[in-house]
Amino acid sequence: MPNRLANETSPYLLQHQDNPVDWYAWGPEALERARAEDRPILLSVGYSACHWCHVMEHESFEDPATAAIMNEHYVNIKVDREERPDIDSIYMSAVQQMTGHGGWPMTVFITPGGAPFYGGTYYPPEPSHGLPSFRQILLAVAEAWRERRADVDQSAEHMAEALRESGELRATAGTLDPSILDRAYRSLASRFDSAWGGMAGAPKFPQPLTLEFLLRTWKRTGNADAMRFLDVTLRRMAAGGMYDHVGGGFARYSVDAHWLVPHFEKMLYDNALLARLYTHAWQATGDDAHRTVAEDVLAWVTREMTSPEGGFYSALDADSEGEEGKFYVWTPGEIDSIVGVEDGALVRAYYGVTEAGNFEGHNILHAWRTMDEVAAEQGVSVERLQDALDRARPRLYEERAKRVWPGRDDKVLTSWNAMMLHAFAEAARAFESHEYRRIAITSAEFLVGRLRTEDGRLARTYKDGRAKIPGFLEDHALLAEALVAVYETTWDERWLREARTLADQVLQSFWDEEQGIFYDTAADAEQLVIRPRDLFDNATPSGNSAAVNALLRLAELVGDERYSRVARRVLQSLADTMARVPAGFGHLLSALDFHLATPAEVAFVGTPGEAETDAMLRVVGRAYLPNTVTALRRADEGGDEELIPLLRGRTAREGRATAYVCERFACQQPVTDPAALAAQLGLGSA
User: How high is the pLDDT of residue 635?
Assistant: First the structure.
C-alpha cells in the first residue's frame, strides 16, 4: 500500500511512495507528530536524477527490516532538494560542518524543533570501506536519543548556534572598482587548464557562470588569454562525451579531466546557462560552431523537455534499466547496423568508437579530432565525412529512442524555467528566430499565469496542474531577469511591468536592510531553525546575485533609484569576498562588471517586422553587448514613457527607424543607419 508520498507531485518523492518506510513530506503533520511524541526526525534529502539516491533507496528504504527500525524510532521525512532549496541549504551546511563534506543523498537526524545533531550522506546497508551500515547508524542514534539525551540536546544547540552564526554576514562595505574584477580574473587564471579547458583536475564541471565572467573580462579589457581559455573550454566541452552528440544537451559533469566520461544526468539549469553562454560566444566571435551547440541544446529542450503547457521539465536521469549511461553508449556493430558499413566506418572514426570501448566495454561518443584529421585518415573529403555524419545523427537518434529511456523529472521549477526562458529569449534575438520567440512568450505566459499559489503568490514548483510552495528569492529574481530579456526581444511592455512587480516583491519580502543582503526565504515564510541565505553562486546563480543583476538592468530601463541603491549595497557587502573567492561569485562578478561599465542605453523608434527597423535591431541583437539595455517605441504607438523614461521624447527622424544611444539618459545624436549605430556602439561596420 502506498505511503503518504503518493499524494505529492515531486517525482523524487513519488519514487518512494511504495517504500515500507512511513514517510512524510516536510510539513506541519510530521513536525507536530515529532513534537507530540518527542521523537527525533530522520530527514532524507535527494533528487530524482541522483544515482546514489536510487542506490540507497533500493538497498535501505525498500528493505522491510531497515524500514521497521526507521518506523519504530523516528518520524521519517523525505525532501526533494529541488523543491525545497531552503531546507537543503540549511541541513547541507550542517552536514558539511559535522563531516567536512556533503552530497546526496543527505541523511540528517534533527530534533523536533529542527536542530540537527548528527548527519551524513550515503550509508551502505552493510559496513563497508570504513562506513558503518545504515542500520547501525539508526540504532546508535536512537540509543543516544534515549540514553544520552542531554548530550544530544547540547550537540543540537551547538549546531543550531553554528548555523545561525554562519548565516550572519561579517563584511565591511568595500569600494567598488575594476581592481575587484582584475583580482578575480587573476585568481581564476591561476587554475585554468590550458590544454583541456575548465579548471585543472577532475572531475570537470562546466561552470558557465565563471565562463560568462571570462567573456566579460575579454570584452572589458581585450585580454586575449581570457578569450583563448574560453574558446578552448567551449570547444573541448562540446567535443567531449559530456555533450550528447546524438540528441543534444550537456550532462551534469565529467568524472575525468578530459570531458569524456559524464555523470549522465541532464539538468535543465546546466543547459539553460550553457545555451546562453554559447549564444554569447557566437555574438562575440561570429564562430558558427558555438551557434550550432546553442541551437542543438535548445532543440533538445524543445523536443524532450517542454510540457504541452509551455513549462520546461527539470531533468533526465543518469540511469536506465538500472545502469548508469546505458541509454547513451554504443558498440561498433550497432553503429554499422544503423547507418551502414560504409558510413559507419566514418562515423566510428569521427566519434572514437572502437571494439575496446571507453566505458565498460561500450563507447561514449566524442569528437576529439577535427574533421580535416579524420577525413585525411579515412581518405575521403571533408564534405563526404560531413554528409555521413549528417545522415547518421537522425538515424542514431531514432534507433536510440527505441531503448528504455532514462527517467524524466517532469516537475516545473520556476527558477530553472526562468533560466531556460532567458536562454530562448536571448537566442531569439541573436539568431532572429521566430520559433524561439514563440517558445519564450509561451513560457513567460505560463510562468506568470500558472506558477501561482492559492493566495496568488509566485510558486516554486508546478506539476499535474498543481502549483505549490511559495517562491524563494531565486525564483523571483531569476524570473525578473528573464522577463527583462523577454521584453528586449518582444518589445511588449507587459513583461517589463511583470519584471518590475517581481523586483518590488524582492525588496519587500527578502531584503535585509541591516546586513545589506537578501534572505533566500520571504519574511513571512515558514520559520525554520534559521532563515537561510546562500551568498555563493554554485551550479546556478544565488538568489542574491540574480537579484542584483535584475535590479541593475531594471534600474537602467525604468529609472528607479531604489533598485540601483539596493544592488550597489549588496555588491559593496560582498566586494572583498568575491575578489578572494571568484569561483563562487561568477554571476555577481558579471553584475559588478555591468555596474562599473556605465551601461549603454539604446532607444529604438520603429516598427519591428519592417526591414528598416529590423536592420537597426540586428546591429544590437547579433552583437555581444552585455552592458547594454534596449527599449523600443513603436512608430505607430506612444509607448509608456512613465514605465520607460528612456523613451521620453524619442521620435523617428524623417519617418525612418531611428536609434538613440545614451548613457544615464544623456544621448548621442540619433541615427537612422545601421553602420552609424554600430559605430556609436564601438562595433565597427554593421
Answer: 83
CB of 121 within 8 A of CB of 95? yes
Cell of 324: 548508469
Q: Which amino acid is at 684?
A: G
Q: How far, in Å, CA of 254 to CA of 193, rounded?
A: 15
What would the pLDDT profile of 424-433 be if each residue is shown by its tens digit?
999 999 999 9
Question: Is residue 79 scored above 50 in pLDDT?
Answer: yes
Measured in degrees and rounded to the nearest 5, phi and psi for residue 224 equal -65, -30
Burial 412-423 (b: 16+ CB within 10 A, else e): bbbbbbbbbbbb
User: What percent of the chain shows pLDDT beyond 90?
Assistant: 94
Kindly state the DSSP code that residue 61 receives in the 8-state scheme: I
Local confidence band at 685 (pLDDT 50, 70, 90 cut-offs): low
Distance CA 657, CA 640 (A): 18
Cβ contacts of 54-62, under 8 Å, gap ≥ 24: 54/15, 54/319, 55/122, 56/105, 56/122, 56/123, 56/134, 57/15, 57/16, 57/19, 59/124, 59/125, 59/134, 60/123, 60/125, 60/134, 60/135, 61/16, 61/19, 61/20, 61/21, 62/19, 62/20
188, amino acid identity: L
Q: Assign 3-class secondary structure to 439-496.
A: HHHHHHHHHHHHCECCCCCEEEEEECCEEEEECCHHHHHHHHHHHHHHHHHHCCHHHH
CB 134 within 8 A of CB 124: yes
Distance between CA atoms of residues 483 and 500, nearest Å: 9
In 61-122, where do the E strands start and end? 75-80, 106-110, 116-120
What is d(CA 460, CA 84) in angstroms, rounded to the nearest whole number? 9
Grid cell in block for residue 193 = 587548464
Q: What is the pLDDT of residues 270-303, one digit of tens each?
A: 999 999 999 999 999 999 999 999 999 999 999 9
Characterize the bridge pairing of strands 628-634 and 600-606.
Answer: parallel
Q: What is the grid cell recorded at 641?
A: 514613457
Q: Identify the band that residue 686 occupies on the pLDDT scale cut at 50, 70 and 90.
A: very low
Residue 290 CA to residue 280 CA, distance in Å, equals 9
**462 Cα distance to chain centroid:** 17
Distance CA 360, CA 535 (A): 40
Taking the CB of residue 2, how many other CB atoms lie within 10 A of it? 12
69: CB partners within 8 A, 6+ apart: 135, 138, 139, 142
Kindly report the length of the chain. 686
The per-residue pLDDT for range 147-161, each reduced to its tens digit, is: 999 999 999 999 999
Question: What is the pTM assigned to this prediction?
Answer: 0.96
Closest by alpha carbon to 497, among 643, 280, 671? 643
